[in-house]
Amino acid sequence: MRTESRGECTAFRAIADRVSSVAPAASAAPARFAVLEVLSEPSYRRLWLSGLFVNAARWMDLVVLGWLSYQLTDSTFMVGLAAFARSAPMMALGPFAGIVADRAHRGRVLLATQTLGLATGLALAAVFAAGHGGYWPLVGLEMLFGVLWALDFPARRTAIFTLVGPLRVANAVSLETVSMQVAKIAGPVLAGVGLARLGAEACFGAVAVLYGLGLLVSLGLPGRIGGPTAAPRVSLGATLAAGFRAAWEEPTVRAVLLITILMNTLFFPYQHMLPVFAREVLAGGPEFLGALVAADGLGALLGALAIASQRGFISHRRLFALSVLTAPFLLIAFSASRWRGLCLVLLLVVGALESGFAAMQSTLVLLSAPEASRGGAMGILSACIGTQPLGTLWIGLLAAGMGVPGAIAANAGLALLLMLPVAIPLARLHSREI
Predict the structure, then answer these.
(1) Alpha-carbon distance 263 to 361, whole Å?
(2) N or C: lower Cβ tally within 10 Å for the chain?
C-alpha cells in the first residue's frame, strides 16, 4: 500500500472513511511506485491478465466484424447495423448486469462470460470455415459477444474495487485501461494481418484462443474476489429505481453519465466507420485499417500509463472534462485529412484523450457510488456506454447521405457543442473534490 502524496486531495481520506472496504494503513512507499504496488497484488494481477486476453479478443473481433460487414454488403448502413447488433445487448442489459455484479459471485460471472466468448469464437470460425459465413449469420452470432461484454464490464470493474480499495482505485482502473489499450494495438494488427493472409475463420479461431487463455487465467479468481454485496431480499425493480435515483442525484455521476451517452452516440461511432475510411478515403487495405486502429490504441496506452503512474493527486473531474472537450477537435481534423501519416498521428493523440475519458469515467463512478450498489452504478454506466449502437446506426445513415468524412466531422462537432454545458461545470466543482 502507498502513503498519500502531499499533493493528494484530502477528499480521498473522506471517501475512505465512508467506504467500509477501506484499505489498511499504507506504507511509506513513494507515490511513483503506486503502479507496481497495485500489480504486486496476486489476485489483481490475475484479473488484469485475464482482462488483457479478453480485450484483445474483443478488439480483434470488432475489426473483423467491420471489415467483413463492408466486404459482404458494400453498404455503410449495414456496417452500422452490424455494429448496432454487436453493442445493443450492453445498452439493454447493462443495468441488470450491474445488479448481477452486486448479487452474484463476480468471479463466477467472469468465468461464465469467458466460456461464452470461447464458444462463440469457435462457432464463428466453424461457420466461415464451412463456407456459410454470410452477413446475417455473422450478425446473429456477434450478438452473443455483446451479451458477454454487458455482463463482463460491471463485474470486472467492481471486482477491481474489491481487490484494491478506494485509495488505489484510480491507479487500478488506469492499469485496466492500459490492458485495454495494449489489446487495442495487438488485436487490430492481428485482425488486419489475419484477414489479409489467412481469412475470417482463422481470425475467429484466434478470438476463441484468446478467450480460452483468459478463462485459464481466471480459474483461480472466484475464491479471491468475494461473494455478493447486495441484500437479495430487495426486489429487482426497487434496486433498479434506487440505483437510477442515486446516480441522478449525485452531480458528478450525473455529468459522467450524460457525457458518456454523448461520447458513445456521437464521438466513438467513428471507429465503426474506419473500415470505410481506410478503404474508400485513404485507399488502404485491411493491414492499414489495423494500423489506424492500433495507432488509436497506442495513444490510449501512453495516456493510460501516464495516468496510472501519476505521483500525486490530479483532479479526476478536470482531466475527464479536458479529454472530452479536446478529442472532438482532433477528430474533425482527422476527417479532413487525406495523408495517411497525419491520420495515424491524429488518431494517436485522440487515443490518449480517449484513455483519459475511459479511466476517469469509471474512477469517478466507483468513488461516488455506495458499496452495496457499486455494481448497479457500473451497470448504469455500462448501459450508457451501450448507447453506442444508436450512434452507429445514425452515422451509417449519415455517411450514406454525405460521405464518411462529413459524417465523422458533423458528429464530432455536435458532440462538442452538447458536452460543453455539462463538462465545464463538472471541471469547476470543488465540493468533495476528487
Answers:
(1) 11
(2) N
Query: Which residue in this structure is represented by grid cell 493528494?
Result: 8
CA gap 430, 434 in Å, rounded: 8
Residue 258 lies in a domain: yes
Residue 434 lies in a domain: no
Residue 153 lies in a domain: yes
pLDDT tens sequence across 55-97 = 899 888 888 898 888 888 888 778 878 888 887 887 777 777 6
Tens of pLDDT, residue by residue over 197-236, are 888 889 999 999 999 998 888 886 655 565 555 445 555 6
State the maximum Cα–Cα separation within the chain, in Å, rounded to a whole number. Answer: 62
Domain count, the chain: 1
CA 242 vs CA 14, 95, 257, 378: distances in Å: 23, 12, 16, 14
- Mean pLDDT in residue range 30-45: 64
Q: How far apart are CA 318 and CA 327, in angstroms?
A: 14
The domain in which residue 214 lies consists of 31-227+236-428
Confidence label for 29 from pLDDT (cuts 50, 70 and 90): very low
> Is residue 24 in some structural domain?
no
Which helix (H) or strand (E) element contains residue 314? none
DSSP lists the bridge partners of residue 29 as 2
Q: Which CATH number characterizes residue 339's domain?
A: 1.20.1250.20
Query: Residue 174 corresponds to which amino acid?
Result: S
Q: Are the C-beta atoms of 239 and 375 separated by less than 8 Å?
A: no
Tens digit of each residue's pLDDT (9 = 90 or more) over 135-191: 898 888 888 888 888 888 778 877 777 777 666 777 777 778 778 778 877 888 888
Q: Is 399:362 a contact under the CB 8 Å cutoff?
A: no
**Phi, psi dihedral angles at 2 (to 5 degrees):** -115, 155
Long-range contacts of the stretch 132-136 (C-beta < 8 A, 24+): 133/68, 133/200, 133/201, 134/72, 135/69, 135/72, 135/73, 135/78, 135/82
